[in-house]
């Protein structure tokens, strides 16, 4: 029997517990991945703090990478030892979105039930209590059994911490720019919020050839990192939204063609919409608590032909996009490593959540021995 150490959430709003769990052997269509890295994402914090209701007990984590350790019967697309990044969304393959080639819009993904596609769980305590896996992958554990569709082969030579971020924040941010908004070369772009997703939006805008990329955050040190990954300008936001908008308009000749909100707060969502010039587009990338509602003036939105786009997972098709982003990273065009400011042990997870809650730092990554 395989066992692993995992971060388990048993009660929302309470600290995770580090437990040794039994891991099932992979069945047909499944693989076991030895985890090497797991990002600490704001989505994990939403679950930890109860802002996104999820069933418990559940192994935390949805942004991970590792190597294939075992394969189930009939699995031929992956081999033992293959480095992989994990996708937190496994499409059902039969709904109209999947049939239309939009896996990110699948409403019936088994990932939403935090189980295998047939409803099975793959983690259990010593006394046989089943434990769910967040998004069906539960990356904050030393090992995970996942559907083969969730394990995306990557080229060799990619740092596992980088590969983990490609599995969520990089695909979310870069894809929001390149795939959701389809930002054209020469456009002016603003990115509000410079965590892992926001900085990935900055990198995406640089890849798109945007002429002006304004990075916005309350923390001045994050603007320095944004410049390193492609921003042309930095703007420190204040509580005075009108002053922030005025400064942004001064930098972008009247307002950005595209404003990306990458925090998931009502105030910044409204800022992204309000700063738009005629014909501008607000792209909402950050995920708010479930009950959050934002407002905007309808007349100027319609009269000015402005748009609001929602971007889930950067419209990712993981099987295609993960290797593409990995290749761009290896070619030096996607400096994902600059997003990582701390590599931590699983024991440090609650401290990492505290830092994330306070908006301190960039991306933290759990690394496994």
What this model shows, in words?
By secondary structure, the protein is of the alpha/beta class. The protein is built from 10 helices and 18 strands. The strands form 3 sheets. Strands 3, 5, 6, 9, 10, 17 and 18 form a 7-stranded mixed beta sheet that branches. It has a 6-stranded parallel beta sheet with strand order 13-12-11-14-15-16, sandwiched between helices. The longest helix has 21 residues. It is globular, with a radius of gyration of 20 Å.
List the helices and strands and how they pair.
Elements: E1 2-9, E2 17-23, E3 30-40, H1 42-48, E4 58-59, E5 64-71, E6 83-86, H2 96-99, E7 123-124, E8 130-133, E9 143-147, E10 151-153, H3 160-180, E11 188-192, H4 196-208, E12 212-217, H5 220-228, E13 233-236, H6 241-251, E14 258-261, H7 266-274, E15 281-284, H8 298-303, E16 307-310, H9 318-330, E17 340-344, H10 349-357, E18 363-367
Parallel strand pairs: 4-8, 11-12, 11-14, 12-13, 14-15, 15-16, 17-18
Antiparallel strand pairs: 1-2, 1-4, 2-7, 3-5, 3-9, 3-18, 5-6, 6-10, 7-8
Helix pairs in contact: 3-4, 3-9
Keywords:
single chain, 18 strands, Quinone Oxidoreductase, Chain A, domain 1, 2 domains, 369 residues, Rossmann fold, six-stranded parallel β-sheet, alpha/beta, seven-stranded mixed β-sheet, 10 helices
Fraction of residues in helix: 25-40%
CATH-derived architecture of the largest domain:
Alpha-Beta Complex
- The secondary structure category is alpha/beta
What is the element string, with H for helices and E for strands? Answer: EEEHEEEHEEEEHEHEHEHEHEHEHEHE
**Strand residues, percent:** 15-25%
* CATH classification class of the largest domain: Alpha Beta
What is the number of helical segments per DSSP (H or I, 4+ residues)? 10
Radius of gyration: 20 Å
**How many individual β-strands?**
18
Shape: globular
| Poorly predicted sequence stretches spanning 5 or more consecutive residues | none
Q: What count of structural domains?
A: 2
Mean pLDDT: 96
Name given to the CATH homologous superfamily of the largest domain: Medium-chain alcohol dehydrogenases, catalytic domain
CATH topology of the largest domain: Quinone Oxidoreductase, Chain A, domain 1
Largest sheet: 7 strands, mixed
Distance from N terminus to C terminus (CA atoms, Å) equals: 20 Å
């Amino acid at each position: 029997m395989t066992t692993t150490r995992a971060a388990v959430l048993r009660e929302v709003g309470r600290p995770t517990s580090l437990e040794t769990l039994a891991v099932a052997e992979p069945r047909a269509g499944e693989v076991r991945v030895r985890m090497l890295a797991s990002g600490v994402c704001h989505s994990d914090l939403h679950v930890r703090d109860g802002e996104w209701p999820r069933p418990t007990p559940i192994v935390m984590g949805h942004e991970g990478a590792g190597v294939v350790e075992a394969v189930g019967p009939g699995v031929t697309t992956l081999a033992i030892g293959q480095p992989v990044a994990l996708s937190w969304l496994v499409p059902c393959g039969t709904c109209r979105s999947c049939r239309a080639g939009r896996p990110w819009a699948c409403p019936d993904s088994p990932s939403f039930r935090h189980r295998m596609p047939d409803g099975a769980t793959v983690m259990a305590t010593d006394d046989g209590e089943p434990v769910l896996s967040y998004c069906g992958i539960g990356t904050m554990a030393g090992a995970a059994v996942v559907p083969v569709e969730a394990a995306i082969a990557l080229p060799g030579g990619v740092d596992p911490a980088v590969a983990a971020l490609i599995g969520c924040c990089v695909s979310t941010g870069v894809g929001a720019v390149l795939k959701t908004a389809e930002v054209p070369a020469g456009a002016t772009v603003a990115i509000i919020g410079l965590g892992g997703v926001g900085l990935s939006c900055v990198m995406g805008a640089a890849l798109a050839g945007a002429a002006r990329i304004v990075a916005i955050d309350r923390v001045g040190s994050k603007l320095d990192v944004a410049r390193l990954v492609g921003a042309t300008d930095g703007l420190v936001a204040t509580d005075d939204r009108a002053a922030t908008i005025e400064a942004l308009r001064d930098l972008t000749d009247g307002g950005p063609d595209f404003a990306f909100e990458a925090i998931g707060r009502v105030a910044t969502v409204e800022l992204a919409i309000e700063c738009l010039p005629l014909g501008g587009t607000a792209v909402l990338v950050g995920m708010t608590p479930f009950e959050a509602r934002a407002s905007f003036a309808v007349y100027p939105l319609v009269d000015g032909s402005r748009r609001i786009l929602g971007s889930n997972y950067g419209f990712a098709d993981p099987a295609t996009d993960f290797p593409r982003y990995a290749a761009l990273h290896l070619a030096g065009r996607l400096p994902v490593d600059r997003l990582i400011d701390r590599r931590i042990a699983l024991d440090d997870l609650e401290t990492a959540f505290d830092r994330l809650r306070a908006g301190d730092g960039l991306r933290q990554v759990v690394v496994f021995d």
